[in-house]
Amino acid sequence: MQNNVLSSLKEHENKLLTIWSQLLLENGSTDGITEEEESKEFTSLLLDALRISNGNNQESEEFEKVHDLLIGISSSRAKRGFSPRENAQYLISFKEAASQILSELERDPVKLYDANLILGSVIDNMTIMTFEAYMKGREDVISRQIDEISEISTPVIRVWDGVVALPIIGTLDSSRTQVVMENLLQQIVDTGSSIAILDISGVPAVDSLVAQHLIKTVSATRLMGAECIISGIRPEIAQTVVHLGIDLTGIITKASLASALQTAFDMLQLTVVKRK
């Protein structure tokens, strides 16, 4: 069904942008210059698509360009901190601005109803797309933050020639154990260290699963030709290990990092003395 009213929106593009910008400001759904440039491009492409197809073929090449741009805008807004509601409000405000102009252009209630019906269908479909793109954008942010936190929370420190230490903070799970193991083994290779210290002072509790992860890490370290020392064994952790019947036989354990470092010096036949 042809609707010349929708086609005529292109002639009022600047006015539409002005009204839309005002609505976005009132709703607090904009962040300034970046948004303004995105909105101009989106408005231009969408009005071109409506002018060519009148909204009847949302699978056309013109609408594909609009959809691609909208996905990029939604993902960008998600990364800039907009909420799902604000992201949806972006398109709802556009529909409201376009409806205002349509009301001024068409006095025939039937034609006006048809135009708003088509416009609503187009915008509603795009709103669904924005939610999907928004979720993808947030997932990318969360994934990046998880990677950054993992890197920060599993630093391998070279404390002496031949000795590296890895302080573990927080709970160990299977995925994090894999990161710990990879970082530690890579650092052993890079530095040629023969002793690795795992400090678990920052681990809130040790259960059978955490203990198994620690044992796997120790075993992997030994396969690389290095000895592993576990430090930070607090009294409550020692009691838990005994209570659970966890076998740490053959693994060197120390109460503190300082004690573990002294043991490492002894293994390397090194002596640290105070200068007179």
TrEMBL record:
SUPFAM superfamilies: SpoIIaa-like. The keyword Phosphoprotein applies. InterPro entries: Bact_StressResp_Reg, RsbRD_N_dom, STAS_dom, STAS_dom_sf. It comes from the Bacteria. The keyword Phosphoprotein applies. Keywords: Phosphoprotein. Pfam families: RsbRD_N (PF14361), STAS (PF01740). Residues 153-268 form the STAS domain. This is Anti-sigma-factor antagonist. It comes from Flavobacterium aquidurense.
